Amino acid sequence: MNEQLLGLVTGLIFGFLLQKGRVLRFEKQVGAMLLRDMTILKFMLSAILVGMVGLHLLAALHVITMSHKALNLGALGLGGALFGVGWAVMGYCPGTAVGALGEGRWHALFAVLGMLAGAALYAELYPTCTTTILAWKDLGKVSLPGLLGVPPWLVIALFIPAVLALFAWFEKRRL
Question: According to the model, what pLDDT value does residue 46 have?
Answer without folding.
Answer: 92
